[in-house]
Design brief:
Length: 121
């Protein structure tokens, strides 16, 4: 009897893990998202927004509460996220790291940068 309960508990735990992975993957489908490993460069947009370049045609603005000049741009800038994909919208769970030692800055909003490429180019 005890073995059956242990096996049932193990199956229930595995099922919860599998559904959480599926939920994360399906939440990124159909949304405008990127992975942290896809970021190829950073820049300053204004006092509270950082630009993350994902490809030549895809850039995202990450809004932080602090001034972007507070980031130490002399050392590596990085993005840390609690999920596999970072999607447009609320920045919950996403941080920009800068400096040495790295100081985290909470992202409050993520938006897709407008495409400046002229049509037909």
């Amino acid at each position: 009897m005890l073995r059956k309960l242990a096996a049932a508990a193990a199956l229930l735990a595995l099922g919860a893990c599998a559904s959480a992975t599926t939920d994360t993957a399906s939440s990124a489908e159909g949304r405008d998202c990127f992975r942290t490993v896809d970021v190829r460069g950073y820049g300053v947009v204004d006092e509270h927004r950082i630009r993350a370049r994902v490809s030549t045609s895809r850039e995202y603005y990450l809004t932080i509460a602090q001034n972007t000049r507070d980031l130490d741009w002399n050392h590596a800038i990085a993005i840390r996220s609690t999920t596999s994909f970072i999607c447009v919208g609320n920045g919950a769970g996403v941080q920009v790291l800068g400096g040495d030692p790295a100081i985290p800055y909470q992202v409050t909003r993520i938006e897709r940068a407008p495409d400046d490429t002229p049509p037909g180019s």
